[in-house]
Amino acid sequence: MDIGFIGLGSMGRSIAENILKAGHGVRVWNRSRERAQPLEALGAKLVDTPADAFSGDAAFSMLADDAAVREVFATGLLDHAPRDFVHVNMATVSVAFAEAFAREHEARGIHYVAAPVMGRPDVAAAGKLTIIAAGASAAIDRVQPVLDAIGQKTWRIGATPQHANVVKLAANFALASAVETLGEASALLAGHGVAMTDFLDVITNSVFPGPVYSGYGKLIAEDRYEPAQFKARLGLKDVRLALAAAEACSTPLPIGSVVRDSLLDAIAHGDGEKDFAVLGKVAARRAGR
Amino acid sequence: MDIGFIGLGSMGRSIAENILKAGHGVRVWNRSRERAQPLEALGAKLVDTPADAFSGDAAFSMLADDAAVREVFATGLLDHAPRDFVHVNMATVSVAFAEAFAREHEARGIHYVAAPVMGRPDVAAAGKLTIIAAGASAAIDRVQPVLDAIGQKTWRIGATPQHANVVKLAANFALASAVETLGEASALLAGHGVAMTDFLDVITNSVFPGPVYSGYGKLIAEDRYEPAQFKARLGLKDVRLALAAAEACSTPLPIGSVVRDSLLDAIAHGDGEKDFAVLGKVAARRAGR
Amino acid sequence: MDIGFIGLGSMGRSIAENILKAGHGVRVWNRSRERAQPLEALGAKLVDTPADAFSGDAAFSMLADDAAVREVFATGLLDHAPRDFVHVNMATVSVAFAEAFAREHEARGIHYVAAPVMGRPDVAAAGKLTIIAAGASAAIDRVQPVLDAIGQKTWRIGATPQHANVVKLAANFALASAVETLGEASALLAGHGVAMTDFLDVITNSVFPGPVYSGYGKLIAEDRYEPAQFKARLGLKDVRLALAAAEACSTPLPIGSVVRDSLLDAIAHGDGEKDFAVLGKVAARRAGR
Amino acid sequence: MDIGFIGLGSMGRSIAENILKAGHGVRVWNRSRERAQPLEALGAKLVDTPADAFSGDAAFSMLADDAAVREVFATGLLDHAPRDFVHVNMATVSVAFAEAFAREHEARGIHYVAAPVMGRPDVAAAGKLTIIAAGASAAIDRVQPVLDAIGQKTWRIGATPQHANVVKLAANFALASAVETLGEASALLAGHGVAMTDFLDVITNSVFPGPVYSGYGKLIAEDRYEPAQFKARLGLKDVRLALAAAEACSTPLPIGSVVRDSLLDAIAHGDGEKDFAVLGKVAARRAGR
């Protein structure tokens, strides 16, 4: 396929690479052109404007947040897209923005697929992301070969694009809760002189298998928060989006509030750029340790 | 081995059965004798007093809580145990009680092993419990053949008995947090018209595998809280014990407080005997659904 | 003085009336002209555009929120103000907006005074508001005669305009906390069959005198939330602004999070237009009553 | 009247003095006899056993907590009280204990009046306590002259003794909430460079008059937590009793949970013996200040 790609952050670059490797033609645009150059060697065509990337069969965008998407699209990108074009937005944006953005596409006859992903940069590089996609079935069908190059599985959440964003935010909310919980449990264990590793051995081999409890648990057990795989500051962004999505439907998320406060505590102590697991340090500090 | 067994609740009975099936001699005592009778057919000897069970090589007890243990042992059980006797206490008791109880054993030269278990009654029946054991290594070694008949794995947490209780409570705290989180996530999803099952498909096949997210998630998705596998009222008991253990070492557990409040809400609405997953109903109610 | 007045909500109209009664010339503008007409009888001059009101010696504006202020000022109002003009903004706006808005005034040489007020509409009508003012001393001095017609006391918080907004939000945060606390206390008392009025008699005549505890306490005791003096929905707006102001300086406000969740619960149950005291109903519902 | 008095902590001693000064005969007992001696000079009779004090017309007791009351009364005090005797228990005890204790009195035909008080030691010394009394009207009538010597006002809460304890705990819960709120507000203000004293001037002269906001607010503004008038550790005791009373009637108190966590944080940092206002320090620490 003839694919445009916008946004080459650490996630975006790996994703674009995998699309290239799968044999698709890719025109890439990034605010800073240098980040795009390594892709040229892999066969990508570097273009000068977002509009140049927003053409062909479909475009994938992977931008940082609502503001970044708004800024790139403020140039009227949607007004000049070809007929029957598919735009796949992989960014974790707010539900409110996702909804409005979907309507803007619809008004112009552009197919809009929300396809936020789960997985850290190393998972993206391996082409093993979990993709949560929503939008018109036919539109997803058309880009499915590209999605298959990016992720190990695409979960389809229905025809309403922002539903994919809700699922993504709910998943990250659950992740945030688990990390905070591990931090609090660690403080409790330490208060009684019990090793966090003993606790982790028990739970990760029984009720809580999987990467979250073992991965973040290990970081907390080792009190090691750098280098960050998923920064506390970005974790707060996602918790904030979940709280906003919940507020929009008058839904209290008390756990979300707790995690938000702990993340603010982390940031206030200069740990915003450290790994999300730094919540363990916050819990320890609350307990005077 | 010649084993005494005290306490035949739904967990205790299955455990005693598995000990019998493994070929050990078992003298059983239970407050209500009828509950003990089915074990007689399997070869157990029914005894009339706790003291009759607190003899032989070792005794296992599985009583409801601190108060139940205290009551049974108030009769001076510890004063007449044979030399070199091992008492394995499988109950989920408070850390403070566990510590004091361990000292009482030590003062009388009785070996004390704290061995709380993880797993619901069906897991107990299958002999697949996760056992968290702490106490003198030699004492655990002696009862290990019996523990092997009960659980799929014994995790040893060191020589300080109450450490096993801390780990158990921390694990149940993590469980409680996960269930509350699923409840809140469900309310968020419902508020946007997204199916909980879609969300569960994504997370249980990626970041959150394992029985907790899929099992409790399913109950919440189906809004089905009976019959209860793990009752909300008993969940509150464990959260309360975790909060007390944390308070004893001046450790705030904000997530614990949130879950406690939600469980009180459930109980206030008459749902204390329903499954722990009823936290999903509480979260939905808070959102006016 | 020759005063312009923008924004005639229930607060604004009473304030404008008091300025008129104090003998000042007042040109008023409101989005809906009908609301302005009663003031004509009192001597006000009704003008057709915000710009007509943004002239003379000074202008006072009392608009609903950031968005309303932004919209009215988007027409370039600041670009045509006379030299040495003073703008007094009485709205409860976000701290971030207040700061940016102050800079916009400064860039154009317009004196900007932030003067949010405390007090319900009946207090505004009586000219007894508590005014929290910040901005250049000389600018406040010039409008002080007008402020004296509006409030019983002007508290000066220094030269940085948004500081007045911070104080206002902190005060409303404290108010919100007190109302939530009264709601929770009421649920506790009811659970033990104790009359809320007995409790209120004790505390309002001893440690908690003043209008908040007696006023909101009475509404909760009587379970009477209409007509609303201060709507739950607007209370949530202020709590949200306090949380945002706190987040901007990485400050957790756990109490703020609790109140936010309770207010969402109220709104989810259709009580957003009822009095803030409806938090008492939320607390009772949590307790199954 | 012929009065017995048990328990001469800092509150008890001032109360006993005021009873003596009002002309009543007072037999005093205290665990440590030295603390009682200063009262001898004022005309008190020092007695050797609690039973010696639990005689005459009535006895007042002011002990630290449930455990202290239980210990003193474990000696069978209630079994030997004279007919028609009135016992006035001024301690802040748990509601559950108060209820059981009232029943024990009733079973023996002893009149039981629960009369917890509000006010710090200096208020007690001045005879200006706020007394919250519950029990049979006739019994309170009989001791009213003594209560009048102790407090400026006795609030009668009905015939069920423990209702007085519920009111007392609810009042202290409200106090705790106000102090936490002031702490959080202070952190918010500091984050924006606004003086806490400016904020306090505004609110204590308008919506929040009275001793709580001005008194605790001043301590927080001055970051001065010693000497303690009301220790954080004792504040936690009262919050814990309020949470327990609420749990007994399945009533969530989210604000209570927040304050409990903050107090644990204070204690974990070695500030348990400092004034309750040290919650301001906790809030500042959470914000990295």
From TrEMBL, chains A, B, C, D:
All residue ranges annotated as the 6-phosphogluconate dehydrogenase NADP-binding domain in the record: 2-156
Classification via InterPro entries: 6-PGluconate_DH-like_C_sf, 6PGD_dom2, 6PGDH_NADP-bd, HIBADH-like_NADP-bd, HIBADH-related, HIBADH-related_NP60_sf, NAD(P)-bd_dom_sf
Annotated Pfam families: NAD_binding_11, NAD_binding_2
Gene Ontology molecular-function annotations: NAD binding; NADP binding; oxidoreductase activity
Species of provenance: Trinickia symbiotica
Domain 3-hydroxyisobutyrate dehydrogenase-like NAD-binding: 164-279
Active site: residue positions: 168
SUPFAM superfamilies: 6-phosphogluconate dehydrogenase C-terminal domain-like, NAD(P)-binding Rossmann-fold domains
Keywords assigned: NAD, Oxidoreductase
Protein name from the UniProt record: NAD(P)-dependent oxidoreductase
